[in-house]
Specification:
Trefoil (Acidic Fibroblast Growth Factor, subunit A), 4-stranded antiparallel β-sheet, elongated, 33% helix, disordered N terminus, alpha+beta
Length: 418
C-alpha cells in the first residue's frame, strides 16, 4: 500500500511540473496548412529589417536575449519591452524558404539547444554554422506569425503560454496556443538583409577559423600595407621614416605589416632575442642595440642613414622575416579574440575588425564597430567607416586616403575567404 501511495505521489509531482499543453488539442503543423496565409517576405507585407517579436500570450513582452548576453548559449525569454538591442532581431531570408533570426546586440542567431528537436527544448542564441536547427520557417496565422524550426515540425513557443517576465522560449509541438503565435513589429528597415540591389557586397555567415583565416589575413594585410594591393604580396624590407605616412607618426615604421613605433621597437627586440650573436654581426657598432634602450615614440627617434641601413638588414635577415611573421600573428590573435568577445565571430567581420585595428588602433575600431549597431556585414562596416569622412580630420581610419585599402580588403574577402 505504501509503495502504491508513493508511486501516486511521484506521478502527481511530475504532472504538476510538466508543461501545460493539452495533448488532445495537438495538431501537427504539417497536417494543418489551411491556417497559413503567406510566407514571410514581400508577399506577406514584411519588410527586411530589425523586429521586436511579441508573443500573442504576452502582448507587452518581447523576446529578449537573457541579460543582453553576447555569448553563445544565452537563453531567450520574454521581458517587458525596454527598447534595447537585446530585444531586436533581424529576420534574414536564406533563399530556401527559411530564415535566420539574428539578435542585433550579439549578432548571434536563434537556435535550439544542442540542436534538440524534442518538446521543451530550450531556445537560445548561437554562432551561425548553417545547421538546420538555426533556421526557421515563418508563416502567417491570421494577423500573427508561427515560427517553425527547420529541423522538425515543432514551433517556437512560450513555456506555459505565460504572460510574465522571464518566461522561457522553448520548442514544442504545434497546438495553436497563444504562446505559439507572434506579432512582428518593425523597428528599423535594412536593405542589406533583403538582398536589395543597394547592397554592394555579398553577406557571409561563416564563422572565423584560425587555420583558414589567419593565412588569408596575412595575405590581405600584406597586400594593403606594403604589397601594392596585390593579394599575397608583402615587402619584408618596408621602411617608413617619421611622418612619412601621416603627421601623427613621429617615429619609424618597419616591416611588411607596417609596425609603427612601439611595435617596430618590439619587432627589433624580437630579432635580437632570437640570436644576439647574429644581431651583432649586422649591428657591429651596436647602434641599434643602443637605440633599443630608449622609447622610440616619446623620444621621436629618427634613425640616421647608417642606422636605417642596419635596420633594413636586420628585418630582412632570416630571423627578421620570422620575427615579422610571428609578431603579426601575435597581434592578430589579440584583435581576433577582442572582436569575438565584444562584437561577432563572423569571419569577414573579424577580418575587417583586425584590418581597422591594425591601421588605427583600439579606439578607432571601437568607434567603427559601435556604429554598426549589431549589423556586421561588409556594407554596414563600410558605411560606418565612411562616416569618418564627415569629420574633416583627413587621417581617421575611414577617410579618403585609406578608402581604396578598405575596398581592396572587401574585394579580397569575397574572392578568397568565401
Amino acid at each position: 500500500m505504501k509503495r502504491i501511495l508513493t508511486l501516486v505521489l511521484m506521478i502527481a509531482v511530475v504532472l504538476t511540473q510538466a508543461e501545460v499543453f493539452a495533448a488532445s488539442d495537438y495538431v501537427p503543423i504539417t497536417d494543418d496548412t489551411s491556417e497559413y496565409e503567406a510566407p514571410l517576405g514581400s508577399d506577406a507585407g514584411i519588410e527586411a529589417g530589425y523586429y521586436v517579436i511579441y508573443p500573442k500570450c504576452a502582448p507587452k513582452r518581447a523576446l529578449t536575449v537573457k541579460n543582453g548576453s553576447k555569448s553563445a548559449g544565452a537563453d531567450i525569454y520574454t521581458y517587458h519591452y525596454v527598447g534595447m538591442y537585446k530585444q531586436w532581431f533581424e529576420i534574414i531570408p536564406n533563399g530556401d524558404g527559411t530564415y535566420l533570426i539574428k539578435n542585433r546586440n550579439s549578432a548571434k542567431v536563434m537556435q535550439t539547444h544542442n540542436g534538440s528537436i524534442v518538446n521543451n527544448a530550450n531556445v537560445e542564441q548561437g554562432s551561425y554554422k548553417k545547421y538546420a536547427y538555426q533556421k526557421w520557417y515563418i508563416t502567417r496565422s491570421g494577423s500573427y506569425y508561427v515560427i517553425q524550426n527547420a529541423a522538425s515540425s515543432k514551433v517556437l513557443s512560450i513555456r506555459n503560454h505565460a504572460d510574465h517576465d522571464k518566461a522561457e522560449a522553448v520548442l514544442y509541438s504545434y497546438i495553436k496556443s497563444d504562446g505559439q503565435k507572434f506579432t512582428l513589429k518593425l523597428r528599423k528597415r535594412t536593405s542589406s538583409s533583403s538582398g536589395s540591389t543597394s547592397s554592394k557586397y555579398k553577406k557571409s555567415a561563416r564563422v572565423w577559423k584560425d587555420s583558414k583565416d589567419l593565412p588569408i589575413m596575412a595575405n590581405i594585410i600584406g597586400a594593403v600595407e606594403s604589397g601594392g594591393q596585390v593579394y599575397g604580396k608583402r615587402n619584408y624590407a618596408a621602411y617608413a621614416a617619421p611622418y612619412a605616412n601621416t603627421s601623427n607618426e613621429v617615429t619609424i615604421t618597419l616591416g611588411w605589416a607596417q609596425c609603427y613605433g612601439a611595435e617596430a621597437q618590439k619587432l627589433v627586440e624580437m630579432i635580437y632575442k632570437m640570436s644576439p650573436s647574429k644581431f651583432k654581426k649586422i649591428d657591429t657598432k651596436k647602434l641599434i642595440v643602443k637605440a633599443l634602450k630608449k622609447n622610440w615614440v616619446t623620444s621621436r627617434w629618427a634613425p640616421t642613414a647608417k642606422e636605417k641601413a642596419i635596420l633594413i638588414k636586420l628585418i630582412t635577415s632570416e630571423n627578421g622575416k620570422k620575427a615579422q611573421d610571428q609578431l603579426f600573428k601575435e597581434s592578430m590573435k589579440s584583435y581576433i579574440n577582442a572582436c569575438k568577445a565584444t562584437y561577432t565571430d563572423n569571419a569577414w567581420a573579424v577580418h575587417m575588425y583586425c584590418e581597422i585595428c591594425h591601421l588605427g588602433g583600439g579606439g578607432a575600431v571601437k568607434r567603427i564597430f559601435d556604429r554598426c549597431n549589431g549589423d556586421y556585414s561588409l556594407d554596414s562596416i563600410m558605411k560606418a567607416l565612411k562616416k569618418d569622412q564627415a569629420n574633416g580630420n583627413g587621417s581617421e581610419v575611414g577617410d579618403k586616403m585609406f578608402w581604396t585599402r578598405h575596398e581592396k580588403c572587401c574585394e579580397f574577402l569575397q574572392k578568397y575567404a568565401a
